[in-house]
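Ex. 9. Protein: Nickel import system permease protein NikB.
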Amino acid sequence: MSIFKYLLIRIAVTIPVLLGVTLLIFSLLRFIPGDPAQMILLTMFDPGATVTDLDVDAAILRKQLGLDQPFAVQYLTWLKEIVSGNLGTSFRSRTPITEELWVRIPATLELAGAALVVMLVIALPSGIAGAVFHRRPTDHITRFIALMGVSVPNFFLGLVLVYCLSYLLGWFPTLGRGSWQHLVLPALTLGTGLAATTSRLLRTSLLEVFSKRYMVLAEAKGLPRSVIVYKHALRNALIPVITSFGMIIGGLLGGAVIIETVFSWPGIGRYVVDAINGRDYPVIQAFALLMAVTYVMINVLIDIIYRWIDPRVRIEEGTHG
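Predicted structure tokens for Nickel import system permease protein NikB:
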């Protein structure tokens, strides 16, 4: 089967999945306690107004927002907007969500890219060192650090870094986005947790590769240890890491929601948190759908890369064909 045909099949399969995701997102949001119209009015509440006035204004606003329509009508209207390329309009700002996302996407991508670099810088050396020096002090140290990285929540690690590196030492700014110094603490916080998971996966995969017969043969031939590790073992060991890369990217984007809130980073995550607090349904729906599409696209791309990098897949296909 060619990659192009495989890609078409995967896209066809993902269409009903995305439709199910839209229905699930739309349904779950309707179970969130609170009335969006009242939440919006409370932000503009006049101390002299009465509860009756607030209820009347909420009913009017609810009708303007289309929240008085039946569930099926609201869902089909939103689905029609998505198909036409429109993510909707924010309840609070009355601004197209696409415009607001485009303003904030560069900040989120900047943070995610920097966190990815941090993750690779930490995960690759520690994972390789843990496997090469298996059951030695280096392995124990890297495993302990990885365990701590997995166990400590991102928001707590962020607060610790702020206290130590910003408050006590004054090395980096605490909040906001500006120079590269503003990026260090958020990227370090977000990348460390993902590095711990990736390091453990790479270590386990390398140990499995080291036990293969062709690795024993390479050692018997007297090849240098560096050649055995980096030329023969690492490529095969990276296959499970690559296949899990979709979860890693998802962790970067999903973790950015918390990290952007902790560090007041003006990205998509902070925008969505504000929307959740204000019951801004269209913004939450757009973000959840964007994350679902991102996950699907990344996993399809990773499947294609996996088929290209692992010759065993091609051999099996040729045999079945």
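Check your answer against this statement. The chain has 14 helices and no strands.
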